[in-house]
Amino acid sequence: MIDQRTEKDFLGELKVPHEAYWGIHTQRAMDNFRISSLKVNPSLIRALARVKKACCQANAQLEFLSSEKAQVIEQACEEIVSGKMYDQFPVDAMQGGAGTSTNMNINEVIANRAIELSGGEKGTYNLIHPLEDVNLHQSTNDVYPTAVKVAAIFLLRNLARAVSELQGAFQEKEKEFAAVVKIGRTELQDAVPITLGAEFSAFAEAIGRDRWRTFKCEERLRVVNLGGTAVGTGLAAPRNYIFLVIEKLRETTGLGLSRGENVMGETANTDAFVEVSGILKAHATNLVKIANDLRLMNFLGEIRLPQLQAGSSIMPGKVNPVLAEAAIQVGMKVMANDSIIADCASRATLQINEFLPLLTHSLLESMDLLININKSLAGHIRAIVADASKCAAYFDHSPTIITALLPVIGYEKATELMKEFSSSSENNMRLFLEDKFGKETVNKHLAPFALTALGYKDRG
Questions:
Q1: Which CATH superfamily is domain 4-136 in?
Q2: What angle do CA 29, 33, 35 make, to 5 degrees?
Q3: Cα pseudo-dihedral 25, 26, 31, 34, rounded to 10
Q4: Which of 111, 177, 393, 394 is most buried, by CB atoms within 10 Å?
């Protein structure tokens, strides 16, 4: 039989596992929200602990908390930031109450750990109280959205590094494949000739834009509402605390955070998260496009993607482009999350957003997914091998390579030659053109540099 302790709140009494660091408010949330298998994102838990530490430091400096209480509360916060005790946050991510259950959860865990550090037994809240001490001068409505922004900034920085790594991988391949000529394609039909390096440069350019967007959008999250308490007016919090707590938060996080000029506006509105999610969606669309292109190029045999695992339980030797497929699925999930985030933000009512738990879960999940897939793709891209002979075969046999000779022969002459080629027994366009204009002329116009140079030099 599980050893339990009894805790009380204004609704009555409830049994809590004796060894649990959470208390009655968490237990009620666990009972009320048996909805999904999704737990609160660890990044949010760590960010909440940072926020609680800042609040503790501000209250201690202003002598609202004794130094003895503040010391153990801070230590408990630091342990959570370090990644410990995550198993003590069992509340379902799909919860009502604008994040109150998660805020109560961390208040109780910090309090009980601090009590333990003080030599007391869990649940003896006369020593350190979850609400009167850990949550002093706070509300879920200022703590929770502030923590979401802190968590998102740290994840954005990780994402920017991961995107930069992927960009670098594409740039390496751009140089490696610079001399591999191939046929370009538009609308899944042969188009003008290009190089494989140029094709990878387009991938690198798109990912480079994503890196810059990701780096810059941190600015949208630096304004927080901590100190605003319930609706942004700071009711029930001392003015000197409201100003000091932001300074403490900057110190504990190392982030360039500031209190909003209109804290009620910061509390009521969550459009900043929608803006950031839009940046994530833009990156997701690029990943989907690029991953699908890589699948097609692999299918055509122009490149060989790394072989990662068996592709079939019935077809021996079959290997599928599984990481590209995973990237596409990540992109789809991020796009879906973006829609959820926009919907959550639009459904806020009056002074708060009741749907922050779903918004937060979707936003942080998107960041986690994108960080992981970027890291995986960077190594995958570096292991791609070009099949120059296959590229050359497609190139040489494609009638559209005649386009490279338009500056010399003109459109009408090229059209005539196309008709002649299609009715001849020759199926190699390069050889056909060499027969007409000589190998030297054809090689000059179909050289990698000539194909990727910005236009051609006129006669002047």
A1: Fumarase/aspartase (N-terminal domain) (1.10.275.10)
A2: 155
A3: 140
A4: 111
pLDDT in tens, 145-164: 999 999 999 999 999 999 99
Predicted confidence (pLDDT) per residue in 244-302, tens digit: 999 999 999 999 999 999 999 999 999 999 999 999 999 999 999 999 999 999 999 99
Chunked mean pLDDT (size 10), the chain, 460 residues: 88 94 96 93 98 98 98 98 96 95 98 97 96 98 98 98 98 96 93 92 98 93 97 96 98 96 95 97 98 97 92 88 97 98 97 96 98 98 97 89 84 88 86 85 79 61
Strands (E), 264-370: 303-304
Domain positions in the chain are: 4-136, 142-237+249-388, 398-452
CATH number of 142-237+249-388: 1.20.200.10
Sort 279 into a burial class: Cβ within 10 Å, 0-12 / 13-18 / 19+. Answer: buried
Residue type present at position 3: D
- How far apart CA 388 and CA 408 sit, in angstroms, is 27
Q: Are 91 and 29 contacting, i.e. CB atoms less than 8 angstroms apart? A: yes
What is the spatial distance between Cα 34 and Cα 384, in angstroms, rounded to a whole number? Answer: 45
Backbone angles phi and psi of 339, in degrees to 5: -65, -40
In sequence order, which ranges of 33-139 are alpha helices (DSSP H)?
42-61, 67-81, 100-117
Estimate the share of the chain in helix, then strand, then coil, as percent rounded to the nearest 5.
65, 10, 30
Contact 137, 64 (CB under 8 A): yes
Q: Which residue has the tokens 């179909």?
A: 446
> Strand 223-224 and strand 181-186: pairing?
unpaired
Catalytically active residues are 312
